[in-house]
């Protein structure tokens, strides 16, 4: 016999199911009057610093069909690379930027869309700088545990080339699955593939 | 002193993926084409995962944690067995997680969701919306009031029924703790038949999702109570920084 470790097990995930929007974006489903607004619908509470961008994309299943019942959340630093979080010890973020967005996706196409800013660089634990990135979290019916990934920016080749995580990926041919591509009009497109030859690199963080 | 040298708690303890449900679980048919096939990319958490959005108690409305009344017409109430769900959100070291946002959603007492894609013929309750939210107190405790959700059939196998359940979405202090799960009810015979629960292989992990009846919190002549504690990921605690000798 040995002493118990007294470590609790994390509560197991379960799928968000087909009705995640009832709980997380009820106004979009037509349930009005409980919450004034859906959380995460806007990431800006006033004029923000930095380059304003839109981030759009679609989540595809292994048959190439767009998911229309997914919920996508993003979390990112402000334009200076500071997180609007009490857990960031490096100072205060842009007070008009929440850093967090939630999208139920377009009811017809499933496409998500965020109006945000291009994030600044954030240090890795060893002090090296990471390339600008946006953390994604995807849940849906059929996804038993939420999927983490990141969108980096295709127009940041120097920063991407020295990013501590991108350089760790064994199959470098998969890096394009993590790159948001400029659309030429101030926006970026970042599609997510759950399976297939272009399967997005998902993270265990 | 560079930013990276400032004292910081350790990174998040890695997820035990064998304790969580298998992403690919053919009896749950939708998982077959939605489960990633490649190995996940593992790396230590960074500020991007150790930080997370902050939700203040001031954003809550007075009925946000009362699903019996928050969609009901004035003077009316949702139909069904009245229950209180309460518990404590803690991390893997057992410390309460203060300020955690919990969002919950569920079917009504007949097992029907208020959703246009819902095809079950059970009746809608005009006084039940089906969602609520609450933020944990300084000790990690939460409580909300609702009606007992009904079990419902769903298109998977020929005759699959979900056990009664409440969906939970949780935010901790760091985005690495983000979690969606479901709470089940003690004694529900459908738990053993559910292909979604069946994606979890460890019976102890399933048991941790089943809330016991809590007579001590039950309000006589009013509402029964169920207790559902939730554990979010924790961070390594150490006085020793992980850096090369001599620095
Ligand atoms: Fe459900």
Report what the structure shows.
The complex is a heterodimer of chains A (about 200) and B (about 250). Chain A has about 200 residues and is mainly beta. Chain A has a single domain, classed as Sandwich (Protocatechuate 3,4-Dioxygenase, subunit A). Helix content of chain A is about 5%, strand content about 25%. Chain A has 2 helices and 11 strands. An 8-stranded mixed sheet of chain A has the order 4-3-6-7-8-9-1-5, with no helix packed on it. In chain A, strands 2-10 form a two-stranded parallel ribbon. In chain A, a hairpin with a 7-residue loop joins strand 6 (about 135-140) and strand 7 (about 145-155). Chain A is globular and about 45 Å long. The model of chain A has no long low-confidence stretch (mean pLDDT about 95). Chain B has a single domain (about 50-230), classed as Protocatechuate 3,4-Dioxygenase, subunit A (Sandwich). Chain B has 2 helices and 12 strands, in the order E-H-E-E-E-E-E-E-E-E-H-E-E-E. Chain B has helices at about 45-50, 205; strands at about 40, 80-90, 100-105, 130-135, 140-145, 150-155, 160, 165-170, 180-185, 210, 225, 230. Chain B is globular and about 60 Å long. The interface between A and B is large, with 82 and 96 residues. Bound molecules: fe (ii) ion (FE2). The site of fe (ii) ion has 3 residues of chain B, from strand 8.
CATH architecture descriptor name of chain B? Sandwich
* Global outline of chain B: globular
Overall tally of structural domains of chain B:
1
Say how many strands of chain A there are.
11
Give the overall average pLDDT of chain B: 93
Please mark out the parts of chain B with pLDDT under 50 across 5 or more consecutive residues, or reply none: 1-7
CATH topology of chain B, which one?
Protocatechuate 3,4-Dioxygenase, subunit A
Overall spatial form of chain A: globular
- Rounded average pLDDT of chain A: 96
Give the biggest sheet of chain B.
5 strands, mixed
The radius of gyration over CA of chain B amounts to 20 Å
Radius of gyration of chain A: 18 Å
Major sheet of chain B: order of its strands?
4-3-8-9-10
